[in-house]
Amino acid sequence: MIKNIVFDLGRVMVEFDPMAYIEGFGFPAETEKRLYETVFGYDWYLHDRGDYETIEDLRDTLAKRHPELQREIRAVLNGDWVKIHYLKADTADYLAGLKDRGYGIYILSNLSKESYDFISRYDFFRLIDGGVYSYQERACKPEEKIYRVLLDRYGLDPEETVFLDDNPDNVAAAERFGIRAILFRDIAQARAETEKLLTQ
């Protein structure tokens, strides 16, 4: 019997569309492509992992590494960059409904401290029973460590746990631990698949 539902944050609980964000600056198309690859590539993963402590550290490193894009990098990673995140109200409503039905609600997410500080202001955070975040653990999905921390810290039985994530690699990693994992494409599909598991 399922007792716990674990949600990813980006593209599940909150929208996260880096390319749409970059396109809002009005740069030429080729510059947009290079910015996306430069800012939201491997170094972004390291930022989520806590290897860069602040967005300023990431911004300064990338600006030095790519002087030809320095102005654009500094524009994109400005003080308001966290507003790239905005609530997916339909998923938040589903989470609240699951909480009302008595399920344990948890978060497992790759994100930086700045992202956490911004997203954790949303009301749904008051409903969660616990969360594991990459910047705190110095590990990102799909690394095994972060799943093990989730299960051990909160005493979750994998067979009693459902995990919703938009990344196939993260879903596959959860399944290796015996967690029931659902690839999140949209709320209608994710809700249908989750409800099917809850009735088994």
How would you describe this structure in keywords?
five-stranded parallel β-sheet, 11 helices, 2 domains, Rossmann fold, two-stranded antiparallel sheet, 200 residues, alpha/beta
Give the helix/strand layout:
Blueprint: E1 4-7, E2 14-15, H1 18-23, H2 29-39, H3 42-48, H4 55-65, H5 70-76, E3 86-87, H6 89-100, E4 104-109, H7 113-119, E5 130-133, H8 134-137, H9 144-154, E6 161-165, H10 168-176, E7 180-183, H11 187-198
Parallel strand pairs: 1-4, 1-6, 4-5, 6-7
Antiparallel strand pairs: 2-3
Helix pairs in contact: 4-5
What does this structure look like?
The strands form two sheets. The chain has a five-stranded parallel beta sheet, with helices on both faces. The protein has a two-stranded antiparallel ribbon with strand order 2-3. With 200 residues, it is an alpha/beta fold. It has two domains: 126 residues, HAD superfamily/HAD-like (Rossmann fold), CATH 3.40.50.1000; 66 residues. Strand 6, helix 10 and strand 7 form a beta-alpha-beta unit.
Short description:
By secondary structure, the protein is of the alpha/beta class.
- In which order are the strands of the major sheet placed? 5-4-1-6-7
Count of discrete domains? 2
Sequence stretches where pLDDT stays below 50 over 5 or more residues? none
Top CATH class of the largest domain: Alpha Beta
Mean pLDDT: 97
